[in-house]
Amino acid sequence: EILSFISRVEERTTRATDMNDTSSRTHCVVHIRLWRFNKNTGKIRASTFNFLDLAGAERIAEAHKEIKKIMEAPIAERKNLYDGMMNNYTLHIMGDVVDSILARMKRGKATDHRSQSFRWCALTRMLAGTLCPERAAITSMLVTVSQAPFNSQPTKDALIFGGKIARIRMQAKPHKAVKRAVFVREIKQRLATSLSTLSR
Fold first, then answer.
1. pLDDT tens digit string along 57-99?
2. Residue 97: CB partners within 8 Å, gap ≥ 6?
3. 19, 60, 95, 133 from 57: Cα distances, Å
4. For the whole prediction, is pTM greater than 0.85?
5. Where are the alpha helices (DSSP H) in the chain?
6. Are the beta carbons of 180 and 44 closer than 8 angstroms?
7. Whose CA is closest to 23, among 85, 77, 76?
8. How far apart are the first and last CA of the chain?
9. CA nearest to 154, candidates 165, 139, 164, 144
10. Do the Cβ atoms of 48 and 113 come closer than 8 Å?
11. Cα 17 to Cα 15: distance, rounded to the nearest angstrom
């Protein structure tokens, strides 16, 4: 069932640029939360899985060679350009968050998942539990590289970024088991918050 759900990732939006015929125009996050009920203790323990496919950083001048012409086009026709710029921005923010975590680790300080750096964009807010050493369990990252000479700089940048992620030392901690009544109350509160957000 989980694999069937994740397969929907194939439906994500792609568009052609001057560098890639099927360029991903957005990041893709599949967030799965599982609950296990222990009949003996009457308690529930939650587990969270985040599967993230980051869109690659885009060299705007090469991906959109006729950028002057694009900027003079109607707003609707600029979406491809804006998507690439937004991807670059969120990757930059994520890089800043990782740098902040590594700096705090070097100083021997804990990283608060509620800190301002995680709030800078939706991507880092979603990944607070994945990147924050004090909250995360296990985080793995696959870095896509290319042997093509014209991709040497993006490949170098991707490896540097992946190297920074690898330096974050996670402290695995299982979620605390809670009583069924507490769990139901929390779920109702989350549902109410979600419905309130959607109604705005």
1. 777 777 677 776 777 777 766 777 888 888 888 888 999 989 9
2. 117, 118, 120, 124, 131
3. 12, 9, 12, 25
4. no
5. 2-6, 60-63, 67-71, 79-106, 122-126, 128-131, 152-166, 180-198
6. yes
7. 85
8. 32
9. 144
10. no
11. 7
